[in-house]
Amino acid sequence: MAEKKRIEIVTVDFDDTLKMKEDGNPNPFVIQKIIKLSKKVDKVYIVTSRRNTWDNKLEINDFVEKNNLPIDGIYLTNFADKWYTLEKLNSDMHFDDDEDEWRTIEENLPELQLMKVDDETGSLMK
Fold first, then answer.
1. Cβ distance 60 to 95 under 8 Å?
2. Exposure pattern of 7-16 as b/e (b: 16+ CB <10 Å)?
3. C-alpha span between 71 and 55 (Å, rounded)
4. Which residues fall within 8 angstroms of residue 11, CB to CB, at 6 or more apart?
5. What's the chain's Rg over C-alpha atoms?
6. Beta partners for 95?
């Protein structure tokens, strides 16, 4: 039986994954999971498709600080597919709510453990 690879790098989307757009509230399902994982993994990064602007960085940074999240870095892809950034970061696990992203990640990074988030409820999907 093949030995399971240790998860070292976790990446997480921002909108409708960490922060719910409808009410702007933190997503407790994903945040609890990220906090728990952060104690076992080497790094946790936010990877969002948002435009790489000062305003977006500030908003995400404020959210991270306000919610005391264990985040090691923030990456804004300027609407590019996230899998490029996930590959550069050597992500082992990624949380996301976007079906198009799921598809391109599964096609290009089949080894990555994809955690699908329901964009309505914020819960993790099976």
1. no
2. eebbbbbbbb
3. 18
4. 44, 45, 46, 47, 82, 85, 86, 89, 91, 93, 94, 95
5. 14
6. 12, 115
Which whole number is the average pLDDT over 23-27? 92
Return d(Cα 49, Cα 19) in angstroms, integer: 14
For residue 55, give both structure tokens.
């305003």
- Give the percent of the chain with pLDDT over 90: 91
- What is the torsion angle, in degrees rounded to the nearest 10, for the CA atoms of residue 71, residue 16, residue 119 and residue 51? -110
Alpha-carbon gap, residue 54 to 95, rounded angstroms:
24
Query: Which segments of the chain does DSSP mark as H helices, in order?
Result: 28-38, 54-66, 83-89, 99-108
pTM of the model: 0.94
